Structure formats: C-alpha cells, structure tokens
Amino acid sequence: MGPEVLRDLTFEIPKKSFQFLTGPSGAGKTSLLRLMFMSLQPTRGFVRVFGHDITSIAQQELPKQRRRIGIVFQDFRLLDHLTTYENVALPLRVRGKEESTYRTDVMELLKWVGLGDRMNVLPPILSGGEKQRAAIARALIDQPEILLADEPTGNVDAPLAQRLLRLFMELNKLGTAVIIATHDLSLMDQVDARRMILSGGRLEIYD
User: Fold this and answer.
1) Under a CB-based contact definition with an 8 Å cutoff, are residues 46 and 115 in contact?
2) Which of 12, 29, 91, 93 could connect to 181 by a Cys-Cys bridge, CB 3.0–4.6 Å?
3) 202: helix, strand or coil
4) How far, in Å, CA of 76 to CA of 98, rounded?
C-alpha cells in the first residue's frame, strides 16, 4: 500500500452550492472526486454521500446512487462504438427513458457546447477538445444533484472555457451542487465561489 494522498479531511458540500477544488499536481484532487463519486473507498475514516456511508452501501445500490451524480473525467471515458449523440444520451437511456422524450434536449445541449455538427461522429474522430465537450454534455444532460468536473476546461480555448463555465453556473442555479477541479486561476476569478485548496494531503476552505 502506498502513502496516503489525502488525510484528516473534514468538509461538507452543501446542497445547490458551487465550489472550485484546486491545488498542485499530485495533491489528490482526482482521488477526492473519485471518493465523492463512490468509485474509490477510503482506507480509513468515512465518506458520506446523500446521507450514506459509502463503505456500507450495498454493491447493487451503487449504480443507482451514482446516477444522481454527473462526472467529467480527465480521460473522457466516451464509448468508441457510440456516436457523440448516443454517448450524451446514454445516461437517459440507462434510466429507461424513451428517445422521443429527450432527443431535442440532447441535440440542443450538443449545439450549445459547439458539437451540433458532430452529433453522428464516433469518438475516435473527435479532437481532444471535442471529446471534452461531449463528456461535459453527457455529465449535464440529466441535471444531476451533484456535478464533479475534473479539469473540464483543460482542452478548450478561453472563450469556450467561459461559455462552459456559464453552463455550469446555470446548472447550479437549477439546483445542482457543482465541484470543479481546476488549475486555472483566471477561471476561478470569474466566479465568487468557495475555494477548496488541497496541499500536502490537507484541505483548506475559503468561502
């Protein structure tokens, strides 16, 4: 077992809140997001999500709880055999929704993130920035209760980064708690939001 990346952290993410998670590379930002997404178990202590200690949630219950969370990974995790449209619509399909109830919403969101002309393209054909936007659209499409975004503007230019930030802010206004992990100080300076700074395994919070 390797050294602890995170230790002695105590914090709460309030409902409908907006915060940035920042800190140097290797500080544990991605690990912390994975803990909140319940895809990583703590080696000690506990993590409570939606009122449940994640170490005691039944395995068959985890997918249901994770569907309440939208997440944007740095490696995108798009399915190569599905089109951009199909990747973004996937969370809704998994929930058993009929395409007729969401097709317009998926198309409008893809247009908003600049992928209106890439709906029928497979991920291997997309650029890094396009994959980033598709992953963001997939995370947002079902209006999750919590959005976890790991460097969501890392592969896009400044104007598009600002546009995506506005999209996150609009989602937050609709009631989603937003946690954005980023190194981009200029991005953080655009929003009067809580800052959570990881360094040396510890977390400092500035409201």
Assistant:
1) no
2) 29
3) strand
4) 25
Question: Directed axis angle between helix 99-112 and helix 128-140, to 10°?
Answer: 140
Region for 101 from its dihedrals, namely left if φ exceeds 0, alpha if ψ lies in -120 to 50, beta otherwise: alpha
The predicted structure's pLDDT at residue 3: 62
DSSP letters for 15-84: TT-EEEEE-STTSSHHHHHHHHTTSS--SSS--EETTEETTTS-GGGHHHHHTTEEEE-TT----TTS-H
If one counts every other C-beta atom within 10 angstroms of the C-beta of residue 98, the result is 9
**How far, in Å, CA of 106 to CA of 129, rounded?**
19
pLDDT in tens, 174-206: 999 999 999 888 889 999 999 999 988 788 999
Q: Which amino acid is at 173?
A: K
pLDDT the model gives residue 6: 81
The Cβ-side half-sphere exposure at 53, using a 13 Å CA radius, reads 6
pLDDT one-digit tens code per residue, 21-51: 999 888 889 989 999 999 988 888 788 899 8
